[in-house]
Amino acid sequence: MSNAPKLVTIFGGSGFVGRYVAQRMAKEGWRVRIAVRRPNEALFVKTYGDVGQVEPILANIRDKNSTRAAILGSDAVVNCVGILNETSKQKFTDLQAYGAGQVAKIAADCGVKTFVHFSAIGADIDSQSKYLKSKAEGEAKVKASFKNAIIIRPSIVFGAEDQFFNRFATMAKLSPVIPLVGADTKFQPVYVDDIASVAVKGVLGQAKRGIYELGGPEVASFKELMIKLMKIIRRRRIIMNIPFFAASMQGSFFDALQKFSLGLFTNNILTRDQVISLKKDNVVSKNKMSFKNLDMTPTAMETILEEYLYRHRPYGQYTELTEAARDLDS
After folding, report:
1. Closest Cα to residue 14, out of 36, 46, 31?
2. pTM of the predicted structure, to 2 decimals
3. 7-157+188-216+282-298 topology per CATH
4. Cα 308 from chain centroid?
5. 169: which of 207, 241, 253, 312 fits an S-S bond (Cβ 3.0–4.6 Å)?
6. 136 near 125, Cβ under 8 Å?
7. DSSP characters for 255-276?
């Protein structure tokens, strides 16, 4: 009987969520294979474990041969691949539906026993949002190959590398106005390391099969989250609600600009699909498994946000010292 460490392949393992899963799997003593399109840009993952324990490998989930090569010999597969915006080369359906299905099918053909897949709260096959529709299609294709798959649907994910709080904090440094689409839409922000922990439980067989919807301990509107953010980064900004009809027109304009710019412009500002998604609350459903089913208590935002958002303050890490000095002078 072999005593060699087990092997997990993580597709998208160098991304925001994937890197946290990789770190936790390495701490569990597993060998970790990071399947990415550009291994040279993922060399930092090697530091997550002992020499040779964590290795990046070339793989594109739209290519069967490289996907199979990345999976061969694996005991478990975790799929973290996903995009927030479409480009001329990266489409929701290609990556989040067909790509996810292909990874799952090849994993099943290769004899992999455990499959963990990251989706999103709001995934709905009938959704008008292409993003949410593709997420639901991906889930269906994964379950077609793995009836015992663990599917994780997080709400807005926060952490040092997030694209939510960091994005609006950067905007606040440049603009006196923070425009919001869906200011009353509710979110349940969840800490990235918490959802990574659930993925690891899935790999280790410590979580029941099925769908987990994961959100933090606090539900807040978009506007309330921005007020919290402004307080943390010590900035006063006007928070302006943009009506959905106006936002839809703006998103359509930026989408068209991306389409006809021949790749010179990428719409990272606002897409029409994002406007559609923002019309619906992004919170955990009562009829789905959650942290409670795993006896886990999710991390509160206040515990983490200050740790990485301080760099967006007027004086960065010296802001509190500056404020204290002002108090002494007054």
Report:
1. 36
2. 0.95
3. Rossmann fold (3.40.50)
4. 17
5. 312
6. yes
7. HHHHHHTTTS----S--HHHHH
